[in-house]
Specification:
D-amino Acid Aminotransferase, Chain A, domain 1; 8 helices; six-stranded antiparallel beta sheet; alpha+beta; Dna Ligase, domain 1; globular; 2 domains; 243 residues
Length: 243
């Protein structure tokens, strides 16, 4: 049952649309990154500007639309840890670098994954946003476990996370944020401006609601979720979804 406080974070229509995405693409296991992004957008999560390409012609058209600098990522769901496996290339400044990066990714994964040509392009984020993780895992015994904590490359090193079972109230979402050791950095220390904690809270509640509606999705990690200064929101940068 969804708690009353969550209702503002739920789009009750998204369930049907996401089911169609899963059904039409015959998805099982970890799904491709572009489809992860489509699902998250449909559910109302805010994303960094992105697009997808499957050949050089599409690559240049989409890059022109997004604008440089760019990040290039292999889209295949078979590559779960993209950064560790060489499936991410950062700070691509022009078309020449873009083509070289695309060829590099194809060469790396040609003999490893089926759809090695499909890539995701993203706008390179300026500034110095904080990185956190939002996660969800369905447990047959306990229910839907929601995770929040320090994200990016540090998530497995420091394991600075908090947990709650969905559905989550506003008060519980606030507690999850305050419980992690990284919280003072989100509040702002040594002259740094505070981060948009309200936006983090909204997206924890959104994920809680999402987990209750979408029984077909077993696990989901949003990592990193970039957190900007207070009032400037958050953006999903990467994600993985297990169907």
């Amino acid at each position: 049952m969804i708690k009353e406080e969550e209702e503002n974070y739920v789009n009750f229509e998204f369930k049907k649309e996401i089911k169609e995405i899963l059904k039409n693409n015959n998805l099982k296991g970890f799904i491709d990154l572009d489809l992860c992004f489509k699902i998250l957008e449909t559910a109302g999560f805010p994303l960094i500007e992105w697009d997808t390409a499957q050949n050089e012609e599409e690559l240049f058209v989409k890059a022109k639309k997004l604008g440089f600098p760019l990040v290039l990522k292999i889209a295949s769901g078979e590559v779960v840890h993209k950064m560790d496996q060489g499936g991410v290339i950062l700070d691509i400044k022009n078309e020449e670098e873009l083509l070289k990066s695309y060829e590099k990714i194809k060469k790396r994964f040609r003999n490893k994954v089926k759809n090695y040509k499909k890539v995701v392009l993203q706008r390179m984020v300026k500034g110095n946003p904080k990185e956190v993780i939002l996660g969800m895992k369905k447990d047959e015994k306990f229910g839907n476990l929601i995770v929040f904590g320090l994200g990016g490359i540090f998530v497995e090193i420091f394991r600075d996370v908090s947990f709650r079972l969905a559905p989550i109230s506003i008060e519980e979402a606030e507690e999850m944020i305050r419980e992690i050791k990284f919280y003072p950095f989100l509040k702002g220390v040594r002259g740094e401006k505070p981060c948009d904690i309200e936006a983090i809270k909204e997206n924890i509640l959104r994920l809680s609601s999402f987990s209750l509606f979408m029984n077909e999705i077993k696990e989901m990690d949003i990592n990193p979720l970039f957190v900007f200064e207070k009032g400037k929101g958050v953006r999903v940068v990467d994600a993985r979804i297990l169907h």
